[in-house]
Amino acid sequence: MTLGELLQFLDANTNHQFLAGEVAESLTRAQNGEHPDPIAGEILAGIAEGCGAADTDAEVERAQVVNSIGPLRLKYQADDAPVEGFRLMRETVLAIDEAFDQEAIRQKTGEAPSG
Questions:
Q1: How far is 51 from 59, CA to CA, in rounded Å?
Q2: Which domain holds residue 81?
Q3: Burial grade of 32 (CB within 10 A; 0-12, 13-18, 19 or more)
Q4: Domain of life of the organism in this record (predicted)?
Q5: What count of other Cβ atoms lies within 10 Å of the Cβ of residue 98?
Q6: pLDDT at 115 exceeding the cut of 60
């Protein structure tokens, strides 16, 4: 799965707007701290940085993605963290798992991706 495919999946399968324009534009805005949703932007930038993804065509693996947001999960699980950050992180982690689960099923069965 590419970083771009993952970001599109997160945008389509969560209740949050991960994409602010095209995929590459959204990532650039997130990396520059200009994403309209600061928490979603922080997650996008964290995934790209943690995976060493130079652009949205870079291949990413589940373990890389999950590890890349580990520090953010801890940040938003803290007692003094905003509840909306906690909720978004929880929803994001579930969506990441679903994205990679669907990719694994697609590879095993040859089916077209959904989501």
A1: 9
A2: 3-103
A3: exposed
A4: Bacteria
A5: 15
A6: no
- How far is 81 from 65, CA to CA, in rounded Å? 22
Residue 88 maps to a domain? yes
Q: Is residue 57 part of a domain?
A: yes
- If one compares 112 and 109, the residue with the highest pLDDT of the two is 109
Q: For the chain, what is the domain count?
A: 1
Phi, psi dihedral angles at 3 (to 5 degrees): -60, -40
Complete DSSP assignment for 65-112? HHHHTHHHHHHHHSTTS-HHHHHHHHHHHHHHHHHHHHHHHHHHH-PP
Q: Which residues contact 40 (CB under 8 A, 6 or more apart)?
A: 16, 17, 18, 30, 88
- Encode pLDDT of 3-12 as tens digits: 999 999 999 9
Residue pointed to by tokens 């007692």: 79
| Residue 42 resides in a domain | yes
